[in-house]
Design a protein that fits this description.
Blueprint lengths: L1 H14 L4 H10 L4 H11 L3 H6 L1 H17 L1
Helix pairs in contact: 1-3, 1-5
Length: 72
């Protein structure tokens, strides 16, 4: 459940389809959901240019994150 939420949100964010207003909603959920806390911490580390212009590299990062989550 947590992994699927994070995967979907990362894909939307990397593709540039996650709106800033949606990101604000996610930030509000950080307090109650550890998956969103992890997601926000990851997204805040990525500069805007990286998210939009290097989709292939971002998808690779996302796969690595998914593998890390599977290990937990």
């Amino acid at each position: 459940m947590i992994r699927s939420k994070i995967t979907w949100l990362l894909k939307a964010y990397f593709k540039g389809t996650l709106r800033p207003s949606e990101l604000e909603v996610l930030k509000m959920r950080v307090e109650t959901d550890p998956a969103f806390r992890l997601l926000i911490s990851i997204l805040q580390k990525l500069p805007e240019a990286t998210r939009r212009t290097h989709l292939r590299k971002n998808m690779e990062i996302m796969r690595n994150i998914e593998m890390d989550l599977e290990k937990e």
